[in-house]
Structures are given as structure tokens and as C-alpha cells.
Amino acid sequence: MTSSTLHQALSDIFGFSQFRPHQEEIVSALMAGQDVFAVMPTGGGKSLCYQLPACLKKGVAVIVSPLISLMKDQVDAANANGIGAASLNSSLGEKEKREIYSAVRSGDVRLLCISPERFNAPGFTDYLKTLDLSFFAVDEAHCISEWGHDFRPDYLSLAAMTRDFPGIPVAAFTATATPRVADDILRRLGLRNPHLTRASFNRPNLFYRVRLKEQVDKQIADFIRERPDEAGIVYRTTRKSVEATAAALRRLGVNAMAYHAGLTDLERKTSQEAFRHDRCQVVVATIAFGMGIDKPNVRYVIHGDLPKNLEGYYQETGRAGRDGEPAQCLLLHSGGDMAQLIHFTQAIEDPTAREAASEQLRQMAAFARSDQCRRAAILRYFGEEYPDDNCGGCDVCLGEVEREDATVAAQKALSAMVRTGERFGAAYVADILVGADTEKIRANGHDALPTYGVGKDRDKNYWKRVVEALVAKGLAVVDDSRYPTPRVGERGWKVLRGEEPFEILKMADRPSRPARRGRDRDAGDIAYDRDLFSLLRQERSAIASSKNIPPYMVFSDRSLKEMASLKPLDGNAMLAVSGVGQHKLSAYGETFLAIIRRYVGAPEPQGGPAVKKAAAPARAPAAAAGRSVSAPLPAPLPPVPRGDDVVLSGTEAATLECLQRGLGIDDAARERGVRPETIVNHLEKIIAMGERFQPSQFMEPDRLEMIAGLFQQSGGQLLRPVVESSNEAVTYLEARVARALLAQQADAP
Ligand code: ADP
Ligand code: ZN
Q1: Assuming Cys at both sites, which of 69, 83, 229, 282 could form a disulfide with 256, CB separation 3.0 to 4.6 Å?
Q2: Can you give the pLDDT at residue 286?
């Protein structure tokens, strides 16, 4: 298969003009029938690596993935691009399963997603042998290794892929692979002379910033309120602080939900779904919020506390900006965090594990306090050298951190090291400098040294920081990390001799400067018309909720921004927008083109729409709602007034979940174990917040029409006249439901 054929397919199916790094070589290897092992960071674009060959190769591709939610996303995302995909999972009934089997047989399904348990189920591989298979793909392949962090015993059975299917290529993908895990994956799957890919772990669209923590909730809220339309994740260490921050954000009007291991499954699922569907702007979470979060338009990740290690920090920040658009990573930390984490690590019983944990913590703290490029530091941790001096995407390289000259301080500290025989740690050296009166110093006779007390003007913490900075920059050297007793290195001698200056980070005693936002926006972002973008975004939400898929599956933020920038007026121009392939063009093209034309005042094209409508055109639910009521309704009522509190609570969100599954008021009340009145309270608020439903889900169209007429007669929104004029044939509750449903029509554009 030639490169131009692959590019053509990339553009036709996915609407992308270029492959991301390594995608093309992986696709080509699979097309040529070779096994593949690919280590790519989150957001690297792994799914395309198997979706594209699944479309081009004869037969069905079998994808193994560890979570039902991931499988469901795979299938929805593939279908959104017109790729036939299905998942076999335990939640399906017999009939649905039979339908899938027959669609696989007929070739309608190109991509079959399964769990490892399914693969392992008796008789399943025999079934697979009766099919025409194109290849196997193993997602999150590190689950096969005990050394990974998500070991799943059922993954071990996947070895049968290479053993029992000699002619079928196998591709394994992971974002986390230390050499040990990588080795395990290769060996356990028995990959045969695989094509190996290890992508760079650099995420160029992520901006890293580190700030001292002052008033953590306020700092977080300020950051978020500068970005009212953007979704983000806030990580906090404890459940208590998660709850506190989520509550503080909600008080400030931010639509935030909590997520931690102390909540019920339903509560957690509700938060996660609300976040995926853009109904909740911010999730405040412990690190329990992790795998399965593949929302591509997470625009920022904030750490409200110092993480335990750099690996975790990288994985968590990695959930931002999977779509390749600019995204922010903000880390807030304090000396108190460090003390708490040291306390945790010291409580680890196993000495090796304890030692490893404190070494990791030390590296994390050094990262937070360093005044060197953050990106280079992270990549170095993964064994990668970052080639440029200035990454242009971290607080240090953007010149936001303040340094102060500390040459004299460095000389004092280095000389204290030399004078004490280079046998003591940072705390002891600091004690000497501040002239502390300790037994140990007296016993060593160090109170007689000329350096004793020369640093009285600063406190002990300052001197510890100076020593740590000297070590971090290699001016002082620690030979054995178990006994960190720094000695003066070659460059340290230069500073001592006054041949080189030395600077350290200024630890702001005053509030730190806010992030300079304008600048980040320019980097990697395109200029687009914000008003048009917002109209397109509304349409996207409407389509997404009518199809019950997350908005990003309709179009990515990138696609909408490009539409709001290029302002295409016909189908051909629309195809130039990133993420618009043939399928999405015919499904949604005309709807979005119409909005753009109206916006720029361009005439509708002659001879009908420029884009052929798909068989089942996407309809905004509001429009669909209008259709389901046969006769025209009386003029719609003004919308139910919105309360000040426009954030869904946990219980309201749980109701939303039920209603979105199509339950009526009574069924939802039964399922949730609450009174119907409560459900109606929630429904009113949910509709006021912009959610749309088919009226027929709650009420017969004729009945709604009748009640609408009564409202019309009474000329207002009051319930009593309606109930009374019906001779109480209409209950208060019914009237409220009707009023809410009529309000959503009034709201419709
Ligand atoms: P991963 O699984 O590696 O974390 P995904 O497969 O979820 O990454 O892809 C992340 C995002 O990047 C998705 O929104 C996807 O549409 C987008 N993407 C993938 N490949 C390309 C490409 N070649 N050009 C533009 N966007 C891409
Ligand atoms: Zn940098």
C-alpha cells in the first residue's frame, strides 16, 4: 500500500491531513502483516493506528481493551467516522449478541472490541477461528505485566493470539512502559519480530507551571474562572480536600463535581459521564480518577498538592490536551505537602519500597523547586534528552519564575561543606550557617568554625534550599542517595573561587504572578471567530445529546475552531477542516454550513443543500421535540427562570443519568428511591441548565398540548390557574412537568 493511498484514507475517513509521529509506520507495518509493539504517550493517537488498517484490510480486526467504557468509546468514535464497529461485552442481551455475530459474519463490522475475559471465555477462540480476521490489537498492553500498575490476569490468556493464530498479525499498544514492562509485553504476547516504536514522551502542546500554594482553593478558582468555557481536572491528595475544593468551587459558581474512592459507583460514574458529555466543567478528584478518561478536550490539569512522584504527575497531566490543542498544567505545592508526604513514605513498612518512595518524592520535590526547564526535567526522568535550551512552554522558559542572585550564599554553603569534611547532610550544613546551638555541633566542635553563624540573616529553610539547589544543579555532588552528604563538585569550586555566579528561585513571600494567558493562547492556537465558535458549539451539544454521545465525537474543538476561522460555505471547503471526513460531512456538514452561512450573511446555495444529507440526518433534540407533538402548539411560554445555582448536585446528576436513559418521572423515582416530586424538581433545573428531552418521554403529546392551551389561557406560568381551570384533571405535578417541557421549546433557537 503506497503512502499516498494511506494519506487519502486518512483524509477521507478521519478528515486529517497529516499523520501524527509514528502513526504511518505503524499502519504500514500492520498492512504488511507484521506484528507491532508501540509505546506512545497518552494523546499520541494510538486508536487511529488500528482503526485505519481495520478499514483498509480485508476481514475483521479484533481489539482487546480492559474497560467496558473504553470499548464503548472506541465503538462510538469509530461509528462517528462511519467505520462499522461493535463491542461484545457482558452487558449485552442474547438478541444483541446474535445481531453482532451476524454483522461480523456479513462484514459490516470491521472492528470488534472485546474484553480480555471474553477472549478467554470457553470456545471464543474457536469462534474467532471461523472468521476472516485482519489482525488483533491489544490496547493498554501493560495490563499483561505484573510490573505494570494495572495488572489484569486475564491479559495473560492473550498469548493465544500469536500461538493459535499463526497468520494473523498482533499489535500491542501502551502509554506506560518502563523497559521491564516492555520486555514483559513482548515476551508474554510472544510477538514475532515486531515493528518496534517508542515515541517521544514530549507533549509539545502542554504548558507546565509550578507555583507556591497560598490559598489553594482561591488559586484554583481564579485559574478556572479565567477559562469559563474550558473543561479541566483538579487533583487533590485526600478525599477530604477533594470534597472541600469541589464545594469551594461550586460556591464560586464553578460547575464542579467530586470524584474519589469513597463515593458509590453510581456517584463516580455520574461525575465521569457528566464530565465526558460537557455537562460538568471540572472534576475534582483523587488519583482514583484515571484510566478510562479519554476525553480529548481537557484543557487543563491542576495539581492542588505535590504529587508523590514524577511518573504519576506525568500520567495525570497527560490527560490534558489529548486532542493536540494547547492545554495547561498547573502544580501548586507547599512545604507542608512535602512534610505530609514524608510522613506517608516513612510509614511504609518494607524498607526497599520505603527507600524507593522517598527517592521518588525527593525527585518530585526537586522538580517543583527547580529553576530549570520543566519539560526537559520530565523527559530526563523518562531517559529522554530534550534538545532545545528554551521549550517555550513552561514557566521557567517563559520567564515567569523569578530568580535571585545567590552567589555569596552559595559560597557560604559550599565552604561550610568543605569545613565540615563533606560528611553531613543539608540540615546540618544549614544549622552551621544559622549558628544553631545543637549538641551535635558542639560535640563536633563545629561552633568554632569561621562559617558558624555567617548565615544568621536567613532562616534554616533558606539554607536547606540553597544546598538542595547546589545539588540539583550539580555544583555539589551526592554519591550515595541513601546518605545525601553533598561534597563540592568541579563547578562548585568555580563558584567558591568567584569564577561563576549562582542563582536560585525566588520563593515569593507575596502572591505569585498569575499565569500570562494571552501568550499561551497564541502558541499553537489558531485565530478564530469566538461568536461563531460559540454558535457551532451549541449545535454540537444539541446533536450530541440527541445521539447520546459526548460532544467531542460529533466534532473536536479543533474542527469547530477551524470552521470558525475558515468559515467554509460549501462541502468542499468544509472538507479542508481538520476532523471532517466524508462520513461526518454527510452526517453534519449541512447543519453546520447553514449556521456559518447565516452568520456571515451568505445566501443559501441554489438547488438545495450543498451537502447531500445522510440517510438519518442529525436533528437537534429541540427540533425533534417539536416534531413529536402533532398539531402546532400555542405560542411558547417564556422559559422557567433560572436559579442562581446552576450547578447540578450529585443527586441531581444521578437523576439526569436516569432521564437520559429514557426513564419517565415515575420510573426514575422508583429507580432512585425518591419521590416523583424530587425528580420533577431535578427535571426543572436540568432543563433550565440547557438539557433537552423529547416531551413524549414524560407525557402524551395530546395531553401536553392540552395543558399548553391551559397555560396559554391563563396567560402566565402560574400552576394554580391551570390546575383549577382543568377541574383538577391536571395535577400540580403534571403542570410543572408540562411547564418545564414547554420552556425548552421557548428556549430553542
Ligand atoms: P491515545 O489513545 O494515544 O491517547 P487517541 O487515539 O485517543 O490517543 O487520540 C487522541 C486525539 O488525537 C483524538 O482526538 C484523535 O482524533 C486525535 N488524532 C489522532 N490522530 C490524529 C492525526 N493524525 N491528526 C489530528 N488528530 C489526530
Ligand atoms: Zn521549558
Answers
A1: 282
A2: 92
